[in-house]
């Protein structure tokens, strides 16, 4: 199946918007309506449900799936095409206060952790035959009070210069006019995970 990462990012962004229109409420009803406060797993589940409903040809089989030979689960596997890990980036909480350590979800540069860098290392060692990618789903005010770009650029620099991971070119999509008072817009970023220096994979 031929599907470019840029299309997946664009489709994922459109699905986020569609889910947000339905005013989902996370935290067992504790949070304000909108997709922004949903957990990573909830956001992925709802966007995949939407994608399967509107484009079954491409996304009919897309779902979280186990890594080969382990009990770990990859966030999105499109059979015959992509294995994708997703991370949330939320500089502000549902209460409008700055969140502590939010950028660690992206940047922590060690194997075995759950950051985007750790996910890229895990994908390279996974045994998945499909192409591999990491995605970041980030939320901002509009205009941003704490912009995501410095953290995203840091992810790229750490991957290349500290951990020696070769990523493909960044692709991204912007979603505006979300209903949450603080998660007012979303940015979806994606990179193909190509190989690590000194490795053949």
How would you describe the overall organization of this protein?
The chain has one domain. With 201 residues, the protein is α+β, with helices and mostly antiparallel strands. Helix 1 crosses helix 2. Strands 1, 2, 3, 4, 5, 6 and 7 form a seven-stranded mixed β-sheet that branches. The chain has helices spanning 5-21, 40-54, 56-59, 104-107, 116-124, 149-162, and strands at 63-66, 73-78, 82-89, 131-140, 165-167, 171-175, 185-196.
Sum up the overall morphology in one term: globular
Helix percent reads 25-40%
Instruction: Count the DSSP helices.
Output: 6
The largest sheet is: 7 strands, mixed
Rg, alpha carbons: 16 Å
Percent in strands: 15-25%
User: What is the element string, with H for helices and E for strands?
Assistant: HHHEEEHHEHEEE
- Terminal Cα span: 21 Å
Total DSSP E strands: 7
Mean pLDDT: 93
Count of distinct structural domains: 1
Secondary structure layout plus pairing:
Elements: H1 5-21, H2 40-54, H3 56-59, E1 63-66, E2 73-78, E3 82-89, H4 104-107, H5 116-124, E4 131-140, H6 149-162, E5 165-167, E6 171-175, E7 185-196
Parallel strand pairs: 3-4
Antiparallel strand pairs: 1-2, 2-3, 4-7, 5-7, 6-7
Helix pairs in contact: 1-2
